Amino acid sequence: MKKTRKKFSPAFKAKIALAAVKEDETVAALARRHKVHPNQIYKWKREFFENLDRVFEAEGSGNKHAYREAELLQKIGELTVERDFLSRGLEKCR
After folding, report:
1. The pLDDT of residue 59
2. How far, in Å, are 21, 22, 44, 73, 82 from residue 86 at the CA level?
3. Residues 31, 11 contacting (CB under 8 angstroms)
């Protein structure tokens, strides 16, 4: 009999890792309550600490990406209108 792996959402992993960091409960108690192996919780906790710096990097760069995306969408709109206008003018000449 083959066991299938459980897939946990990033939100669930973050919740468990944060609970492990708070240390209100032991990792063993968290593992029992959420039916996860304790080693998995230690791994999520380690990844949590390793990726903390990305939280603040993404905040500032997200605005730049949103602005650039809006700028590019505006340019696409302008070019589409220009192409349509020129194609109608070309059809009249033929």
Report:
1. 54
2. 62, 64, 57, 20, 6
3. no
Residues 66, 33, single domain; the answer is no
Question: Reduced to 3 states, what is the DSSP secondary structure of residue 11?
Answer: helix
First vs last Cα of the chain: how many Å apart?
A: 72
CA angle, 71 then 75 then 80, to 5° = 150
* Same domain for 46 and 14: yes
Q: What type of residue is 21?
A: V
pLDDT at 4: 84
Domain of residue 93, residue span: 59-94
d(CA 22, CA 45): 11
Cut 0.90: pTM above it? no
